[in-house]
Design a protein that fits this description.
Blueprint lengths: L1 H22 L9 E4 L2 E4 L2 E10 L1 E15 L3 E15 L4 E12 L2 H12 L6 E5 L9 E8 L2 H13 L6 E8 L5 E6 L2 E4 L5 E6 L6 E3 L2 E3 L2 E7 L2 E9 H12 L8 H17 L11 E2 L15 H9 L3 E5 L2 E2 L4 E2 L9 H4 L21 E4 L8 E2 L2 E2 L1 H9 L18 H14 L16 H11 L3 H6 L3 H7 L8 H12 L18 H13 L6 E8 L5 E5 L2 E7 L5 E5 L2 E3 L3 E4 L4 E7 L2 E8 L16 E6 H8 L8 E9 L5 E8 L3 E5 L2 H6 L6 E7 L5 E8 L8 E2 H9 L4 H8 L4 E4 L2
Parallel strand pairs: 3-17, 20-38, 26-31, 27-31
Antiparallel strand pairs: 1-2, 3-16, 4-5, 4-12, 4-13, 5-10, 6-8, 6-9, 7-8, 10-11, 12-15, 13-14, 15-16, 18-19, 18-39, 21-29, 22-23, 24-25, 24-30, 25-26, 27-28, 30-31, 32-37, 33-34, 34-35, 36-37
């Protein structure tokens, strides 16, 4: 037994040296291996905070885990546990507020500013090192403490009178005593814990993994007390960590380009290694939230992202031989910004304003020699529906638009409907009796019988539904009423209040609009994909469900474009790759092609949902939010004072009845609650000339500095590799493999 204890001690010492001491020393990038009771963790190691100030912690293992208690001595609590529950005391956190009045890179400058300020007022003034650094470590000049945010807000007026306008309220969490784990429940056995204990959770075998909070993780867990409550830390190899970060930061489903994910992997690796020990006082390097990097463990892993991590193993970005601050943003809105305009700190030569366009991006033009004049039915242009049916061979092509505005004969309408049935794979219907009266009501019955839908109208339509859907329509017997009601319910016929007299005739264009709706809504008829380019034969290259396709086009062919609620028939479509398209294939060729909601832009981030956005906010709502940060009183106006090179608002004047204040950089986004600082403002006024609403029209999502993630996807789609992507957004940098 004594020999076993000595062996355990040896492994524990190895863990302490390799995991915790490593966190406070320079990174060593040799391919060393760290073992803890047979469990391998490859260096370099990251410590990721999964939770702070926890109380009830449940940890499970896929196939067993060892649990060690470490305090002044150490002991093995369990050799092979499947699940544990730890109860700890949640630390009672209190809070105080302070006011940041200045920031300096040089501590001596900060101290001089603080000393001067102390002579002007009788209040606590001190210098603190920036705890939430973004790009570089700075020194804050702090005024405080204040018990409430309201107290801090009130004191800002005093600072304003001293000529200090660039203020920012900071909330600080404080504790009155140390937290501690209380007891642990292992396999139904309750064990008490030492006051100063740390717990280690180690998978029993290399194939096992640990789980917490519904997520699975590589590596081991460490649970310890800290000044901010109980902390759970995931200790693992940096490459395994990145496999959970890259797909969390850049969706492999929405942005499936390997080179973009490789660029994200190198940027994320650089950020992680540079920011090691950023939370050393809490026992970990960085947290698992977007405040550091979004990390969702093994559950987020994807083959594409994992391949990107593996193919860039050990690669980081350097400037002047040092790791860069690898900032990245989701959507830059067409241009990134100089870092010093958004974040407090120096101008970094590699984080400069960069256009999010790519000169090597290819362009293609798909042209059609066909044209079709507008065809109006009840004020709506149905020409796109007519063009679609012509492409599909359902109806004949006629150059005279009047043809489609005239009424079809019964035999002609029946032929069109049967052609639709054939296209949908229907068998020819039984003998259909020609109606005595040829009008919209008899058309409904003809469509139902010819398409084989009679059982639908009997089994899928309630009598009360039929009465509701045909309300106000006269002369409908049981059968014809069912037929009309079913077509209204399916969205083929317009609603009853829009439907004109059922006893009247209808035009060919009207019939075409009904038949197109039948085809459009048929499952599997219209296929979706992404345009990749033209092939040598004049067809298109496209991607469907991740598979590359090479398809010919029928000729002649009307091209269609859908933009929001409108459809048009352009003579040509300009493609730059990546556009969403919808197609219908017939006999191995595309006979119908529609461009879908494509942004009219060549910026690389055009595919983002936040390429352009608009938010309308009431003055009262903004006033309430702003007064949480600055005591301006009643909000009067918002006036941009200065813009950055990318046209982002980098200085904003907020005018109120009690004060005026200038907000700078990224704080603008937080104070206004917007997606980005690249915006313009429109105002709506009341009868007294006061602003009633502010409408912000903007571009982008995030802070707008460094790598544009959606832009990286756009470059990758245009055949740029990850090195070219990184060097575009991080100027004059080098990519180096450091292990």
């Amino acid at each position: 037994m004594k020999k076993i204890v000595l062996n355990h001690t040896k492994y524990f010492i190895i863990l302490l040296v390799s995991v915790f001491i490593l966190g406070s020393q320079p990174v060593k990038f040799a391919q060393d291996k760290t073992f803890f009771h047979g469990y391998l963790i490859q260096k370099p190691i990251m410590r990721i905070g999964l939770g702070v100030n926890l109380s009830d912690i449940r940890i499970t293992s896929s196939s067993g885990m060892k649990i060690y208690e470490i305090n002044s001595s150490y002991r093995l609590i369990s050799e092979d546990a499947d699940e544990v529950f730890i109860r700890g005391r949640r630390e009672e956190l209190t809070e105080k507020y302070v006011i940041q009045v200045a920031r300096f890179r040089d501590r001596e400058e900060a101290e001089l500013f603080a000393q001067d300020l102390k002579t002007k007022m009788e209040y606590k003034v001190y210098v603190s090192e920036e705890s939430e650094k973004i790009t570089t470590r700075t020194h804050q000049v702090i005024v405080g403490d204040f018990m409430t945010r309201g107290d801090a807000l009130s004191f800002i007026k005093t600072l304003n009178q001293l000529g200090i306008e660039d203020t920012w309220i900071l909330r600080k969490e404080i504790t009155t005593e140390d937290s501690k784990p209380l007891w642990i429940l292992v396999n139904d056995e309750l064990k008490s814990l030492h006051d100063k204990t740390m717990l280690y959770f180690v998978p029993s075998n290399p194939q096992s993994f640990l789980s917490f909070g519904g997520r699975d993780y590589h590596g081991i867990f460490v649970l310890k007390a800290s000044r901010r409550g109980i902390v759970l830390v995931n200790v693992l190899n940096v490459e395994d960590y990145l496999k959970g970060v890259v797909p969390s930061e850049l969706s492999p489903y929405d942005f499936p380009e390997l080179e973009a994910h490789k660029a994200q992997a190198v940027a994320a690796r650089t950020y992680a290694i540079k920011n090691r020990d950023s939370n050393g006082d809490l026992g970990f390097d960085i947290c698992d939230t977007p405040n550091s990097q979004f990390y969702r463990g093994m559950n987020a892993e994807n083959p594409l992202s994992s391949r990107a991590v593996e193919q860039t193993k050990g690669e980081v970005i350097l400037y002047g031989g040092k790791l860069i601050d690898a900032l990245y943003t989701s959507t830059c809105g067409g241009m990134t910004e100089n870092v010093e305009e958004i974040f407090d700190g120096p101008a970094l030569p590699y984080l400069r304003c960069t256009e999010c366009v790519y000169d090597k991006e290819k362009e293609w033009i798909l042209q059609s020699n066909d044209a079709l004049q507008p065809i109006f039915v009840r004020g709506k242009n149905v020409a796109p529906s007519v063009a679609s049916l012509i492409n599909l061979g359902v109806i004949p092509r006629k150059n005279d638009s009047l043809f489609y505005q005239e009424s079809p004969a019964y035999e002609e309408a029946l032929s069109w409907i049967k052609n639709v049935g054939t296209l949908l794979g229907r068998q020819d219907s039984a003998l259909i009796v020609r109606p005595q009266l040829w009008n919209r009501r008899s058309l409904a019955s003809l469509m139902v019988y010819a398409l084989g839908w009679e059982s639908r109208t009997v089994n899928l339509l309630l009598e009360k539904e039929k009465n509701f859907l045909t309300k106000g329509m006269d002369g409908l017997d049981g059968e014809s009423g069912r037929h009309v009601a079913y077509l209204i319910q399916e969205g083929i016929f317009p609603a009853s209040e829009e439907m004109v007299n059922l006893e009247e005739s209808f035009s060919r264009g009207e019939l075409a609009s009904y038949l197109w709706r039948v085809i459009r809504d048929h499952p599997g008829m219209i296929r979706q994909g992404v345009f990749q380019g033209l092939n040598d034969s004049g067809g298109i290259k496209w991607i469907e469900n991740g598979n590359e396709k090479d398809s010919s086009l029928t000729s002649p062919l009307f091209l269609l474009r859908k933009s929001k609620d409108d459809r048009s028939i352009p003579a040509k479509i300009h493609f730059i790759g990546g556009e969403d398209i919808r197609v219908i294939e017939k006999e191995g060729k595309i006979c119908w092609l529609q461009l879908v909601d494509s942004p009219l832009s060549n910026t690389l981030d055009r595919d983002s949902a936040y390429h352009i956005w608009r938010e309308r906010k009431s003055r009262e709502k903004l006033e309430k939010r702003i007064n949480q940060f600055y005591p301006v009183g009643e909000l009067k106006n918002l006036i941009p004072q200065r813009k950055g090179k990318s046209n982002r608002v980098v200085e904003l004047l907020i005018e109120g009845t009690e004060s005026r204040t200038i907000v700078k950089g990224l704080r603008i986004r937080r104070v206004l609650g917007l997606k980005e600082t690249l915006f313009v403002i429109d105002r709506e006024y009341d009868n007294n000339g006061n602003v009633r609403h502010f409408t912000f029209t903007g571009r982008g999502w995030g802070h707008g500095v460094g790598l544009c993630q959606v832009g990286a996807f756009g470059m990758a789609r245009a055949d740029a590799d990850y090195r070219e992507i990184l060097k575009k957004y991080y100027l004059d940098t080098k990519i180096k493999k450091i292990y």
